[in-house]
Amino acid sequence: MTRVLVVDDEEAIRDGVAYSLRAEGLEVECSVDGRSALAAVQENEFDLVVLDIMLGDISGMEVCRRIRASTGVPILMLTARDDEADLVLGFEAGADDYVTKPFSMRELVSRTRAILRRRELDRSVPDQVVRAGDVEIDLLRHWVSVAGVPARVSPTELRILALLAGEDRAFTRREILEHAWETTFVPDVRACDVHIANLRKKIEAEAANPVRLLTVRGVGYRLART
User: 128, 169, 173, 196 - which has most CB atoms within 10 Å?
Assistant: First the structure.
């Protein structure tokens, strides 16, 4: 059964999210703070972590960073503000998607289902390895290497790289996010720029002077083939 960890120190939100996800047939475990969440991830295997950005002990950002340092489990962050600074920090920490409070349970369930569906699709891709130039993406093993050197990326960053490597053309920001999140509901295309900036830090020698992940002015982004 698919297992989800819900981390929120507000009982009403935590219980509401857990109830809605269990109604979808998911197995849900709850944590009330960052420390118990980190312990749960260390002791158990989850398919998704729903993580509040504001926790009483350890910040959700720090919890996200620590989870991402040890596992590739997708992370859906709950944030109280639709602020670009929060998006930047959340994606830099390794989050895959976000929902802004107040949110409808229908939206949260939809985003959860989309992330879990992407995870299953990634696991079932027949051609596991995609290449563009010296960038190699293994979807099944969740592994990326650049010129033979491993690069740690989040599940969403992995999907973005795989999309860009799949065709020798520029992709728009909306195309990238629709593929990465597997939804036509893209609340803010700025999120794409944040993901691209994070990826450049991981696959470029100089993020400010990219030679692999290129900007195509007026269109979006493409991955160089040579």
Answer: 196
CB 32 within 8 A of CB 6: no
DSSP string, 151-199: E---HHHHHHHHHHHHSSS-EEHHHHHHHHHTSS--S-THHHHHHHHHH
Residue at 74: amino acid letter: P
Tokens of 220: 């979006």
To the question of pTM greater than 0.70 for the whole model, the response is no
H helices within 24-166, ranges in order? 34-43, 60-70, 84-93, 105-124, 155-166
Q: Which DSSP letter does residue 133 get? A: T
Instruction: Print pLDDT tens along the chain (226 aa).
Output: 899 999 999 999 999 999 999 999 999 999 999 999 999 999 999 999 999 988 989 999 999 999 988 888 999 999 876 666 677 778 888 888 888 888 889 989 988 998 888 777 666 655 578 889 999 998 777 889 999 899 988 888 988 999 999 889 999 999 998 888 766 666 677 788 989 999 999 999 999 999 999 999 999 999 998 7
Residue from 57, 65, 115 nearest 95 by CA: 65
Q: Which two tokens stand for residue 182?
A: 């597997």
Q: How far apart are alpha carbons 154 and 131 in whole angstroms?
A: 18
Q: Which two tokens stand for residue 170?
A: 């520029």
